[in-house]
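Re: export button greyed out
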Amino acid sequence: MTYFDDSKGMPAMAGEARVEDYLALLKPRVMSLVVFTALVGMLVAPMGINPILGLIAIVCIAIGGGASGALNMWYDADIDAIMSRTQNRPIPSGRVTKGEALAYGLTLSAFSVSLLGLATNWVAGGLLSFTIFFYAVIYTIWLKRSTPQNIVIGGAAGAFPTMIGWAAVTGTITWESLSLFLIVFLWTPPHFWALALYKQGDYAAASIPMMPNVAGETSTKRQIFIYSVILAISAFVPIYLGLGGWIYGLVAAATGAGFVYLAVRLLRAPTNVDMRKAARRLFTYSLSYLFVLFLGLLADSFVDRVGGFLA
Amino acid sequence: MSENKTVPVVDQAAADAALQRVRRRRSIALAGALALFAITFYVLTIVKMGPALFDRGL
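Workaround output, generated via the alternate export path:
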């Protein structure tokens, strides 16, 4: 019997998957965003949490987010094999079978939800469970292949971790945590549509109805602009609710203005080359936007607590 | 004339050894994850119950 080194395209054999493949199934990049937003939700909450319980909660939220990523890769293996960005993922490259990915995703989902519920409270556990369900079933199985609004509604899955972090500390869902949810929810469409504008060939090949393929570039650019304006305005809601102070206000104003400026440049891009360049720039900026905005919120919360401690 | 395509063939022993290495690493990772899970529950119990955990009649 011979062993052929070139196994690309062959069905995966049990026992071939490496540890790295199982880590890749968790979508580490998405996981880092989930961890960061959940951490912000926990740190700006008005109460405190035991640091060990806080750490366990963050790990559970990260693993729950990763589990939904594995379930997404299980269902999307066929279209992942078509798109250049995803061809190297463990399932399309043949290193992990679909069954393994499904079992892995379901097991991690059950473990992360149970542990979060036991370690903190069942409001947080229930929210994590709903987030996994929303991402895997509502977004991946239902919306992604059926409507260009997929990312608008599906964006809620990425916005829930702030509320889970908040709920892990307080055991409640409040207007304050909803205001953080709103920011991530409104940030998602311009972020992904900017990506879709310069990767639309990939999405078209996989028959995914992303906005640029369905409504056209002009309409997508206009919608990106509208969402950017609403996002920049909604970033001030936490101030109204007493969650953010002057530091956050300044950061929200500066970063929001930057977001809208780049959206205007994208809207006015005269040529296709300029449009792609502007879309890529907006996509990169949107990544740092959320990070800097939430850092502003953390800075305000830190100043508040230090002030309260010294007073 | 037929094209003489050479396919890189790795000998069976080397392939088996590579597969064994992959499996060993995976088993170690799984054992580590399970150990971490057990330790997490142990620590969680102490943190949730506090010093009262040790304050009981035997």
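The longest strand of chain B covers residues 9-10. The button fix ships in the next patch.
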